[in-house]
Amino acid sequence: MSDEKSGKKTPMCKVGKSGDLERIKRRVRDAKFVCTKCGRVARDRAYLCKPAEI
Predict the structure, then answer these.
(1) Contact 32/54 with Cβ under 8 angstroms?
(2) Which residues are 41's β-sheet partners?
(3) pTM of the complete model
(4) Which of 4-8, 20-24, 44-48 has the lowest mean pLDDT?
């Protein structure tokens, strides 16, 4: 089960390392936040360690 369905939000740094491209694409589509720690982007701030609005 993906974390989107379970309600649990794994940080992008861990998802990126997993290589699950479909899961990554869903999270970065229409990105509104960037992580100030690692530079990854996501549509929901809960997916990032240190989010900042773009």
Answers:
(1) yes
(2) 34
(3) 0.75
(4) 4-8
